[in-house]
Design goal:
146 residues; 6-stranded antiparallel β-sheet; 6 strands
């Protein structure tokens, strides 16, 4: 008995990524309004979860933000704290994760298999993670401490 196995190549969906970037921009623009360069805002989500938002670069058409999970009082073994740099494009009203967890430049897609074991749609997944994080903040009330 023979089975026909075909490998399907990942199809990059630019429209889906742009929709995701537009949704993320709308949510992030509210969070960072009023923060100037080099200023840090702490955002609390729940009892034990805190994130810091820092504007690392501000230009007329773009703003770069670093989002970093702050250490919990009792660190869990093996827990890797989230850290990502996001660029807001004000003219297009889009937000894009430009660095995440040590990945300096996210490609639209990665060939499979690859040496670094990235998913084929790594860029989309990282931007989707940002969207989920922003939804968490909106559900929990997003208490801002400073």
């Amino acid at each position: 008995m023979t089975t026909d196995v075909r490998t399907r190549r990942y199809q990059f969906d630019l429209a889906a990524l742009q929709r995701l970037a537009a949704v993320n921009y709308a949510a992030l623009a509210k969070l960072v309004s009023g923060i100037s360069a080099e200023q840090i805002r702490t955002v609390k989500a729940g009892r034990n979860l805190r994130f810091s938002l820092e504007v690392t670069d501000a230009a007329p058409y773009t703003t770069e933000i670093r989002i970093q999970q702050q250490a919990l009082s009792q660190q869990l073994p093996g827990l890797k704290e989230a850290r990502m740099d996001v660029r807001l494009y004000h003219d297009a009203q889009l937000a894009e994760v430009i660095r995440s967890q040590g990945i300096a430049r996210l490609r639209p897609y990665y060939p499979q298999p690859n040496r670094d074991m990235y998913q084929a749609d790594e860029k989309h997944q990282v931007n989707y993670f940002l969207q989920e994080w922003l939804q968490l903040l909106s559900r929990t009330g997003m208490a801002q401490e400073s």
